[in-house]
Amino acid sequence: MIFVRISARIAAPAFAVTPVTVAARSAAELERAVGAFARAPNGGLMVLPDVTNLIHRDEIIALAARHRLPAVYPYRYYAASGGLLSYGSEQADMFRRAAGYVDRILKGEKPADLPVQTPTKYELVINLKTANALGLEVPPMLLARADEVIE
Question: Domain-by-domain residue ranges, the chain?
């Protein structure tokens, strides 16, 4: 399922962007939805963290490439698998922090008493090979800010 969150809908006008929600739960639905979306000019994909998107990761990346759509993904493994770029929380940090919660629970703390935590580390990964295949030039300033550049 590819969808746009409320915060993205609110922010979109400031960037002169019109978000379009595309809901798909199977590879066939993804093919139809992305194909229809790709026929409109100046489009791009923002793939959000969702289990359906993770299950269909390879199909989404392949569809974006086939339809020459630039796409932003939530985690580095999308860019490592051929996606254009990813920006999201650093998963290794999230797992390390989760281990601390498990330790506290095993020592008797109630899960309801533990504070809610939000990510503190984010990473930007750019796949230059994909950018070149799409005919995109990545600005040097963006490359300099990237945590990892895949060539």
Answer: 6-89+122-150
pTM of the model: 0.81
Three-state SS sequence of the chain: CECCCHHHHHHHHHHCCCCCCECCCCHHHHHHHHHHHHCCCCCCEECCCCHHHHHCHHHHHHHHHHCCCCEEECCHHHHHCCCCEEEEECHHHHHHHHHHHHHHHHCCCCHHHCCCCCCCCEEEEEEHHHHHHCCCCCCHHHHHHCCEEEC
- Which architecture, in CATH terms, is 6-89+122-150? 3-Layer(aba) Sandwich (3.40)
Mean pLDDT split into 10-residue runs, the chain, 151 residues: 58 81 82 86 86 90 94 95 95 89 93 89 96 95 96 91
